[in-house]
Design a protein that fits this description.
Largest sheet: none
Oligomer: single chain
Radius of gyration: 20 Å
Order of helices and strands: HHHHHHHHH
Shape: globular
Number of strands: 0
Helix content: over 70%
Strand content: under 5%
Length: about 210
């Protein structure tokens, strides 16, 4: 699935780089949205299958630190490339980097066969649980706020508050660095402060059993 998502992302970026019309660019952005949604749906479950149990929280934080790192490194780098050689080149470079990530996954990622196939009935039963619905709504609001804020924060600071370019870069750098730091702080504390279900005797265990 990860390799398939990387193929789709490379296709989206190369499609945008060669886009002859606006609708082609829009199609490429829709594909990127599918990639982001696909990654978020499986990203949280990767660490538990790749690292020892004691390192799961830290590894999960490292996986999701890619989101703020994109703000800190990816956006300025793409902007610089766009200014130097044009915006199409920025998308082309991104497509090439994505193909490099694909090759790395093929060579280094161990096989992760599914423990069991998830049926629609399982998802339906999960959605009947109030805690799951609340978690989905909270995740939706967090992601919506993050991307909408980052979309409009630069023009707002430039046109409304009239900050200087140097101060704007500092704000964006601080914003991204706070996201990276927050990921690792959460990863180091969640296992100690995670809410435990009643009757667990102070212990919280997650078990996956075949056929259950």
């Amino acid at each position: 699935m990860l390799c398939a998502l990387m193929v789709l992302l490379a296709l989206a970026d190369l499609l945008a780089a060669a886009a002859p019309a606006y609708w082609v660019m829009l199609l490429g952005r829709v594909l990127v949205g599918l990639v982001i949604g696909g990654f978020w749906s499986i990203g949280a479950g990767l660490a538990v299958r790749l690292v020892p149990e004691k390192s799961v929280a830290r590894a999960t934080a490292m996986i999701f630190s890619a989101v703020p790192l994109g703000s800190v490194l990816g956006v300025p780098a793409a902007t610089l490339i766009g200014h130097l050689v044009g915006w199409r080149a920025a998308f082309g470079v991104m497509g090439g980097l994505t193909l490099g990530v694909l090759a790395t996954l093929v060579m280094l990622l161990p096989p992760l066969p599914p423990v069991r196939v998830t049926q629609w009935g399982v998802l339906r039963d999960l959605l009947r649980r109030r805690s799951i619905r609340l978690g989905l709504v909270a995740t939706f609001l967090v992601v919506l706020a993050h991307f909408r804020a980052y979309t409009y924060v630069t023009p707002f600071l430039q046109e409304i508050t009239k900050v200087s370019p140097a101060l704007l870069c500092m704000f964006l750098l601080t914003y991204g660095a706070a996201g990276v730091l927050g990921n690792f702080v959460a990863g180091s504390t969640v296992s100690r402060h995670l809410l435990r279900p009643r009757g667990s005797g102070g212990r919280f265990r997650v078990c996956i059993r075949p056929g259950r």
